Amino acid sequence: MKENHDKLGANLNWSRMKLYNVIFVVILFMIAIVGVFFVIISNLNQAVKYYGDVQGSLRGLFGKTLTPTTTAIYVPAYIGLGGIVVILMTEVILTSFVRKSVKAESFMILSTLILHVLAVIFSFLISYAEFSYANFSTTYDVFSLSVDNKNFIDHIPSLKGTSALKMIAYHKEHLYKWTNDRTTWWLQFMRLAVILVSLIIFRSAFSTQDSYAQNVSRNLESNVKRTNVGKSKVLKFIGRVFATNEQTISWWALIVTIIILIPQFIYVILLSMDQSEITMIIQWSTNGKQIVGSVSDLSDFSTVLDQIKTPSAFLLVQLPIIIVGASIVTSLAFVFNIIRQWRTDISTFVTQLSVSVIEMILTLMFGAISKGYMNYIVSEWNTNDMFGVFAKVQGNEAFQMLTQMFAVPIFNSSNELDHVWLYGLEYVTEFVISITLFSTCYIMICHRLLLIVNMRREERSKIVNSEAELQHVQI
């Protein structure tokens, strides 16, 4: 039994397990409650049903992004909420019936990992439903725009006499707002963060370092202390910063992640703010372009916007937010390693590091793509004299309605837009510095990690050989 227990590599602390169970159940309950509120709001909004009657016609006018199907709103929400409830019930059942034994420990570890993965998947389904509802809400709000008792829909003859008119009438009495297409993903990262915290608490319920790893950790710490004897405080500090041990690796991984994420985080915060210059420009270049194209008396304005080729708002806005948010959540694992002073197994850290490397690469890549497109859009706006274009449509009734939702960016004294982020050589320099810092530091981290792995193998071989020799002598 003891041998099996050692192979499992985890001595479960059942008192901490009870704490984990309570916290995980509370987290699942909170996620379920938010999901229930969303389902209630989306079902109470009768405008969704009226929207379903004209969704096909609207897609031809406004494009796919602003006209999700009602299925994309309801089905993921029901599946996600149902899945969270099932996980909640499963966790309660496991807590009630699993007893203290080696087999129970192994089963708890496997089942916990599966439940957390499923919780992440189902929470993303809820977020996708919220994202679809947010896009529907944009169309819902556009229809309600009015000037002097005239509605925006009056400028779209093909929608007169349809259920879209019912949507307008319903909007005056009922809003049923939820999140927008950006805050939806920040809400999702709050869910991911609490799920990860739950998993971290579960990990703290058992020790995953075997005797070999503990010996290596003690030897590494002894080496650091021995080499620092007689040195000044500055040299001791430098020695610790570049020491080959698990604690130093965790610090390096966390610090590099923070340094790389700071500019990316600032950028996605600007993307998330309704009144930022970046948001205004993107709204007119993506969703605004689709809506303007449906109005016949804004055809000249639409022609200019169509000349500026831009990808979807998802690539420009949502995807950078999603990746940066996921990277921030993953960095919590490094904080956990530092707090626990690396009482974790090497395979777990390798997994954390691998996920972090992938996320950092995606963060830099999609951040560069989004910023590059932003610079391109600003340059195209200036080339096409968007200041003059906006000036020409100032008196247009439909345009005045749209400015209630999409604010007009601020032009400088030269009637041009200033670049909202680093541009030209500065943009390239930011990317080169980030990728160089990332590559250099993570190569060093992986090298130090490989040294520790080899030392653990050598320590394991020494202990196994000594035990074999001792048994031979006894025989």
Helix content: over 70%
What number is the mean pLDDT?
80
**Radius of gyration, Cα only, in angstroms?**
28 Å
What percentage of amino acids are in beta strands? under 5%
CA(first)-CA(last) distance:
24 Å
The topology string of helices and strands comes to HEHHHHEEHHEHHHHHHHHHHH
How many helices? 18
Number of domains: 2
Widest sheet: strand ordering: 1-4
How many β-strand stretches? 4
Characterize the biggest β-sheet: 2 strands, antiparallel
Provide structural commentary:
- This protein is flat.
- It is mostly helical and 475 residues long.
- The longest helix is centred in the last third of the chain and has 50 residues, at 425-474.
- It is built from 18 helices and four strands.
- The strands form two sheets. It has a two-stranded antiparallel ribbon with strand order 1-4.
- It has two domains: 1-207, no CATH class; 209-475, no CATH class.
Short description:
Helix content is 76%, strand content 2%. The chain is mainly alpha-helical and 475 residues long.
Keywords summarizing the entry:
475 residues; mainly alpha; 2 domains; two-stranded antiparallel ribbon; two-stranded antiparallel sheet; 4 strands; flat; disordered N terminus
